[in-house]
């Protein structure tokens, strides 16, 4: 009995020191959600500051271009590339593609051979759709209303999508401006999209493709700086 009491005392002391006045088993998810919201607000504020600074630079450049011929010529060359770079808004006919997780199965109704990973949209699924649409001649594209450009990356954290510092939950909506027939054919021929369609049949995930007479793709407003580059071999 004395040995047990001593051991219990050691355990209580260790737990108290580890907890440092906090609950060891406290659910941290609300705190994590608060941290995510704070970071998203900070990112939004910084993006607004960046947009304001870019506007200031554009105004100063436009003013100098009026008296500086080489600068005016360089500005004209840059302006000619804005549309191709995704820095101007576009509109036109195209496709809307929706990807969604499978409905949550009722308790006890799911087969033991079906895992949680089988029931959610993954990063490679979104990437396959985006790549197929580009291959089908898409002129402009958005995911969740965010304009994609050549340096845009599709990243998933769990079953959420991360775009320009913002987190989005399914369903994921992808809109592409271009010839609907060509883009549909590219989707049907893409191996990654075919694999997702098989998962749709097997596990009940959501996949819808619809023609649109008018899609509006806003101008890209994020950073266009490259973080790294390699010389092509």
Provide keyphrases for this structure:
233 residues, alpha+beta, three-stranded antiparallel beta sheet
What does this structure look like?
The protein is α+β, with helices and mostly antiparallel strands. Helices cover 46% and strands 19% of the residues. It has 7 helices and 8 strands, in the order H-H-H-H-E-H-E-E-E-E-E-E-H-H-E. The chain has a 5-stranded antiparallel β-sheet, covered by helices on one side. Strands 4-5-6 form a 3-stranded antiparallel β-sheet, with no helix packed on it. A hairpin with a 2-residue loop joins strand 4 and strand 5. Helix 5 packs across helix 6 and helix 5 packs across helix 7. The longest helix is centred in the first third of the chain and has 37 residues. It is flat. The protein starts with a helix and ends in a 16-residue tail after the last strand. The relative contact order is 0.16. The model has no long low-confidence stretch (mean pLDDT 81).
Concise structural overview:
By secondary structure, the protein is α+β, with helices and mostly antiparallel strands. It is 46% helix and 19% strand.
- Number of helices, counting only DSSP H or I runs of 4 residues or more: 7
Helix content: 40-55%
Largest sheet: 5 strands, antiparallel
Strand order of the biggest β-sheet: 3-2-7-1-8
User: H/E element string?
Assistant: HHHHEHEEEEEEHHE
Q: What structural class do the secondary elements suggest?
A: alpha+beta
Number of beta strands: 8
Distance between the termini: 75 Å
Mean pLDDT, nearest integer?
A: 81
Which spans of ≥5 residues are poorly predicted at pLDDT below 50?
none
Gross morphology is flat
Radius of gyration: 25 Å
Strand content: 15-25%
């Amino acid at each position: 009995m004395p040995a047990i009491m001593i051991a219990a005392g050691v355990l209580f002391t260790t737990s108290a020191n580890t907890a440092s006045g906090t609950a060891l088993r406290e659910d941290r998810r609300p705190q994590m959600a608060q941290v995510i919201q704070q970071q998203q607000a900070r990112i939004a504020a910084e993006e607004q500051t960046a947009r304001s600074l870019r506007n200031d630079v554009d105004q100063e450049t436009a003013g100098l271009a009026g008296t500086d011929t080489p600068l005016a010529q360089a500005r004209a060359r840059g302006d000619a590339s804005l549309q191709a770079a995704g820095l101007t808004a576009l509109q036109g006919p195209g496709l809307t593609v929706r990807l969604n997780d499978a409905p949550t199965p009722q308790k006890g109704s799911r087969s033991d051979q079906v895992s949680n990973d089988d029931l959610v949209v993954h990063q490679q699924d979104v990437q396959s759709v985006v790549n197929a649409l580009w291959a089908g001649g898409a002129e402009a594209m958005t995911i969740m209303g965010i304009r994609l450009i050549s340096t845009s990356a599709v990243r998933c954290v769990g079953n959420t999508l991360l775009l320009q510092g913002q987190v989005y939950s399914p369903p994921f909506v992808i809109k592409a401006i271009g010839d609907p027939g060509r883009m549909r054919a590219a989707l049907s021929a893409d191996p990654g999209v075919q694999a997702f369609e098989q998962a749709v049949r097997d596990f009940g995930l959501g996949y819808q493709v619809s023609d649109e007479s008018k899609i509006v793709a806003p101008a890209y407003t994020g950073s266009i700086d490259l973080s790294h580059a390699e010389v092509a071999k």
